[in-house]
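1st attempt posting a full record on here, be nice pls
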Amino acid sequence: MLAVTLAATLFGTAGVATAAPATAAAAAAAKKMPCSSSVRACVRLSTNQAWLMRDGEIVSGPVPISHGRSGFATPPGSFRVTYKSQDHVSSIYDQEMPYSVFFNGGIAFHQGSVRLKSHGCVHLTASAARAFFAELDPGDRVQVVA
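the predicted structure (as C-alpha coordinates):
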Protein backbone atom coordinates (compact mmCIF):
# COMPACT_ATOMS: atom_id res chain seq x y z
CA MET A 1 0.00 0.00 0.00
CA LEU A 2 2.91 2.33 0.73
CA ALA A 3 4.16 1.87 -2.85
CA VAL A 4 0.71 2.74 -4.25
CA THR A 5 0.46 5.79 -2.00
CA LEU A 6 4.00 6.90 -2.91
CA ALA A 7 3.35 6.40 -6.63
CA ALA A 8 0.01 8.20 -6.38
CA THR A 9 1.68 11.12 -4.62
CA LEU A 10 4.57 11.20 -7.12
CA PHE A 11 2.33 11.12 -10.17
CA GLY A 12 -0.53 13.28 -8.92
CA THR A 13 -3.12 10.50 -8.97
CA ALA A 14 -3.84 10.09 -5.27
CA GLY A 15 -7.59 10.44 -5.85
CA VAL A 16 -7.50 7.80 -8.57
CA ALA A 17 -5.25 5.39 -6.67
CA THR A 18 -7.26 5.55 -3.45
CA ALA A 19 -10.77 5.64 -4.90
CA ALA A 20 -12.75 2.46 -4.41
CA PRO A 21 -13.45 0.67 -7.71
CA ALA A 22 -17.06 0.09 -8.70
CA THR A 23 -16.45 -3.66 -9.06
CA ALA A 24 -13.60 -6.10 -8.62
CA ALA A 25 -13.62 -6.66 -12.40
CA ALA A 26 -13.29 -2.91 -13.02
CA ALA A 27 -10.38 -2.74 -10.59
CA ALA A 28 -8.61 -5.66 -12.29
CA ALA A 29 -9.16 -4.15 -15.75
CA ALA A 30 -7.77 -0.78 -14.61
CA LYS A 31 -4.59 -2.41 -13.26
CA LYS A 32 -4.00 -4.64 -16.31
CA MET A 33 -1.43 -3.12 -18.59
CA PRO A 34 -2.45 -3.99 -22.19
CA CYS A 35 0.96 -3.66 -23.87
CA SER A 36 3.94 -5.91 -24.40
CA SER A 37 6.11 -6.23 -21.30
CA SER A 38 9.13 -5.21 -23.39
CA VAL A 39 7.95 -1.61 -23.84
CA ARG A 40 8.99 1.31 -21.65
CA ALA A 41 5.69 3.21 -22.03
CA CYS A 42 2.15 2.02 -22.75
CA VAL A 43 -0.90 4.07 -23.74
CA ARG A 44 -4.48 2.75 -23.83
CA LEU A 45 -6.56 5.25 -25.78
CA SER A 46 -9.97 3.72 -24.95
CA THR A 47 -9.54 4.28 -21.22
CA ASN A 48 -7.29 7.37 -21.28
CA GLN A 49 -4.52 5.66 -19.34
CA ALA A 50 -0.76 5.32 -19.58
CA TRP A 51 1.93 3.29 -17.81
CA LEU A 52 5.69 3.45 -17.41
CA MET A 53 7.55 0.14 -17.47
CA ARG A 54 11.06 -0.96 -16.53
CA ASP A 55 12.38 -4.50 -17.06
CA GLY A 56 8.85 -5.81 -17.66
CA GLU A 57 7.48 -4.34 -14.41
CA ILE A 58 5.08 -1.43 -14.00
CA VAL A 59 6.91 1.59 -12.57
CA SER A 60 3.88 3.86 -12.67
CA GLY A 61 0.29 3.67 -13.74
CA PRO A 62 -2.20 3.74 -14.82
CA VAL A 63 -1.99 7.54 -14.92
CA PRO A 64 -4.71 9.65 -16.56
CA ILE A 65 -4.12 11.03 -20.05
CA SER A 66 -5.93 12.75 -22.87
CA HIS A 67 -5.11 12.26 -26.54
CA GLY A 68 -6.00 13.39 -30.05
CA ARG A 69 -9.35 14.91 -30.87
CA SER A 70 -11.37 14.18 -34.01
CA GLY A 71 -9.24 14.91 -37.05
CA PHE A 72 -6.04 14.72 -34.97
CA ALA A 73 -6.12 11.10 -33.79
CA THR A 74 -3.27 9.64 -31.78
CA PRO A 75 -2.38 6.60 -33.89
CA PRO A 76 -2.06 3.15 -32.32
CA GLY A 77 1.15 1.25 -32.97
CA SER A 78 4.67 0.61 -31.74
CA PHE A 79 7.13 3.47 -31.83
CA ARG A 80 10.55 4.53 -30.53
CA VAL A 81 11.32 7.63 -28.51
CA THR A 82 13.19 9.93 -30.89
CA TYR A 83 14.04 12.92 -28.72
CA LYS A 84 13.15 14.88 -25.60
CA SER A 85 12.73 18.61 -25.04
CA GLN A 86 12.06 19.88 -21.53
CA ASP A 87 10.88 23.37 -22.56
CA HIS A 88 9.47 22.62 -26.01
CA VAL A 89 7.16 25.06 -27.79
CA SER A 90 5.13 23.79 -30.74
CA SER A 91 6.17 25.52 -33.96
CA ILE A 92 2.83 24.54 -35.52
CA TYR A 93 0.39 25.54 -32.75
CA ASP A 94 2.60 28.02 -30.83
CA GLN A 95 1.80 26.18 -27.59
CA GLU A 96 4.09 25.30 -24.70
CA MET A 97 4.67 21.55 -24.38
CA PRO A 98 6.63 21.10 -21.13
CA TYR A 99 8.52 17.82 -20.64
CA SER A 100 8.03 16.62 -24.22
CA VAL A 101 9.05 13.08 -25.11
CA PHE A 102 8.57 12.61 -28.87
CA PHE A 103 7.83 9.10 -30.10
CA ASN A 104 6.01 9.40 -33.44
CA GLY A 105 7.06 12.36 -35.55
CA GLY A 106 5.40 15.40 -33.98
CA ILE A 107 3.50 13.32 -31.41
CA ALA A 108 4.79 13.40 -27.86
CA PHE A 109 3.99 12.76 -24.24
CA HIS A 110 3.92 16.16 -22.52
CA GLN A 111 2.35 18.14 -19.74
CA GLY A 112 -1.14 19.30 -20.65
CA SER A 113 -4.76 19.12 -19.67
CA VAL A 114 -5.98 15.55 -19.20
CA ARG A 115 -9.53 16.89 -19.61
CA LEU A 116 -9.09 18.45 -23.06
CA LYS A 117 -8.32 16.56 -26.28
CA SER A 118 -5.07 17.35 -28.09
CA HIS A 119 -3.78 17.67 -31.65
CA GLY A 120 -2.51 14.08 -31.36
CA CYS A 121 -0.12 14.30 -28.42
CA VAL A 122 -0.60 12.42 -25.17
CA HIS A 123 -1.29 14.93 -22.40
CA LEU A 124 -0.15 14.03 -18.88
CA THR A 125 -0.50 15.73 -15.51
CA ALA A 126 2.51 17.84 -14.49
CA SER A 127 3.92 15.19 -12.16
CA ALA A 128 3.37 12.35 -14.64
CA ALA A 129 4.95 14.39 -17.46
CA ARG A 130 8.06 14.94 -15.32
CA ALA A 131 8.21 11.22 -14.55
CA PHE A 132 7.84 10.17 -18.21
CA PHE A 133 10.50 12.73 -19.16
CA ALA A 134 12.88 11.39 -16.49
CA GLU A 135 12.27 7.69 -17.28
CA LEU A 136 12.21 7.62 -21.09
CA ASP A 137 15.21 7.96 -23.39
CA PRO A 138 15.70 8.00 -27.17
CA GLY A 139 15.34 4.47 -28.52
CA ASP A 140 12.90 3.32 -25.80
CA ARG A 141 9.82 1.52 -27.10
CA VAL A 142 6.37 3.08 -26.75
CA GLN A 143 3.19 1.13 -27.55
CA VAL A 144 -0.17 2.80 -28.15
CA VAL A 145 -3.25 0.55 -28.18
CA ALA A 146 -6.86 1.37 -28.92
